[in-house]
Design brief:
There is one protein chain. The strands form two sheets. Strands 1, 2, 3, 4, 5, 6, 9, 10, 11, 12 and 13 form an eleven-stranded antiparallel sheet that branches. Strands 7-8 form a two-stranded antiparallel ribbon. β11 and β12 (about 305-315) form a beta hairpin. By secondary structure, the chain is of the alpha+beta class. It is globular, with a radius of gyration of 20 Å. Mean pLDDT is about 90; it is low at about 245-250. Helix content is about 20%, strand content about 30%. It has helices spanning about 25-35, 45-50, 60-75, 155-160, 180, 200-210, 215, 220-225, 235, and strands at about 15-20, 80-85, 95-110, 110-125, 130-140, 190, 250, 255, 265-275, 285-295, 295-300, 305-315, 320-330. The chain folds into two domains: about 1-145, Roll (Thiol Ester Dehydrase, Chain A), CATH 3.10.129.10; about 145-195 and about 230-330, Thiol Ester Dehydrase, Chain A. α1 packs antiparallel against α6 (about 200-210).
Length: about 325
Amino acid sequence: MQLYYEDIIEGSSIPSKSWGPLTNMDMIRFGSAIDSYGEIHQDYDWCIEHGFDNVLLSGPFKQALICSWLDEVVGDIGYIKKIEVSHRGINYVNETLTASGTFTKTYTHEGNGFVECDIAITNENGLVSCPGKATILVPMKEMDSIEFNFTAPVTYEEFLTKKISAEFTDPTNIYLTKEIIDMIGAMGESYTWPEPLDISSIRRFTQGVFETKSRYVDIDYAQKSLIGSLIAPPAYVIRPPFGFWDKGMLGESAIPVFTVPNTTVAVNGGNESEWYKVVKEGDTLTQQARVIDIYEKKGAKRSLIPVVSETIFINQDSEVVALSKQINIRMP
């Protein structure tokens, strides 16, 4: 059933969706869809040896589930415009996850209906591991389609030339040394996806996140649509690039490899992504990332060193299709 802007009541609940119990095979399937084979998300023995209770469900996987859920919420015509999630707790294989939320604000802009939402993923024990916010684009009742085509706040050239730096001020800090502060503004390696987006890669990703929306999986439907071909799910556009897990891969951003002194653990702190254009079959994407901030935050038991990076995604026509911000937390 299609969701229309006029039918949304601020403060009302979004229909929830559950997955699970999620299995180790689910993580392997998702890993194969994005070319990620880290032990922490697939190898039970490795996880037990390193003090975990089971194989961990990955942050990108949980964010992709949220996107799959919101794709159902917005209906055949609607789109996800922006999503922001924080990773506040560990989820393991064999858990059941539920996505839920609330419509918090509605507004129109240039003839489009936008809806802001509070969202979260919760497991069967009540652990809220992924709270966040989202902005969705839904049609007015007189509309039979939406053209998803927006201008990003920055061009690729502006992204590459913007200067970011920070002053080193505390020579006594054991984490934020001058060498680490100097990493702020460092640009990672530009990466162009090795082949144009094809039906097979879209299919593998949709299977990995239980996505069933027609514009991603039904070739006949997609060819008859306004776009005329299959398009990529939004979470697929910001996936980690093939082959970058050994090159400083931190969530969705490929930044220069560096080690924060006196830290031994790195965890995914969260992601904020916004989409501006549809990515369709045959498109070739290029992405570029850089560090935009590194700071210390005092936790209850230890210091936390968030490393914040941002990534720009462009298509073969140099159009910005998405922007993403990633937080990777280093800990002693």
